[in-house]
Amino acid sequence: MTTIGGRVVTCILDQGTEVVVMPAAIWKMLSVGLQSDHCLNMELVNTNKDVMLGVIENVPLNFRGGLLYFQVQVIPCMSFEILLGRPFFKLTTCHTFGLPDGEQDILVTDPNMHKELHIPTLPWVKRCTSGLSCPDHLPCN
Fold it and tell me: How confident is the model at residue 39, as a pLDDT?
């Protein structure tokens, strides 16, 4: 988890994704500018393609160890709040540690202060029982 704009958001770690991504619903809550002339096409896991709405430059994310700034692509709709891809792993020199009990922790390093931060992770499980309009998911509009 991290804070962005004073709001706690859940992050998904994905070493296979080449960008940091957030849905339009989170971007709208931040009330910051979007560079729509920097659009990417993103191929999703299910081989569908989605066009990004643009990029937000220098988004401050706070992982309880200080602010780190990322270039974040905005996608129309996602079932999570922030996807931390390879730029996160590279910038923070992130290391993952599998624990004997099945849990996983990460160790990130602030590139400016060289301060290490050990962060426990949680499994990402969404249990939707209400069909297509699950209140736990962000609206896609």
Answer: 67
Nearest to 60 by CA among 90, 19, 32, 23: 32
Strand-pairing partners, residue 59, are 70
Q: Which two tokens stand for residue 50?
A: 């989605």
Both structure tokens of 65? 């160890």
pLDDT at 140: 59
Beta strands in the chain (DSSP E): 2-4, 7-9, 11-13, 20-23, 41-43, 49-51, 54-62, 67-75, 82-84, 95-98, 104-109, 116-120
How far is 48 from 56, CA to CA, in rounded Å? 23
Given a cut of 50, the residues of the chain with pLDDT beneath it are 127-138
Question: What are the φ/ψ torsions at residue 31 (nearest 5 degrees)?
Answer: 55, 45
Of the CA atoms within 13 Å of residue 15, those in its CB half-sphere come to 8
- Look at strands 54-62 and 67-75 and give their pairing: antiparallel
What is the C-alpha to C-alpha distance for residues 28 and 90, in angstroms, rounded to an integer? 27
Indicate the helix (H) or strand (E) that contains 28. Answer: helix 24-30
d(CA 106, CA 98): 9
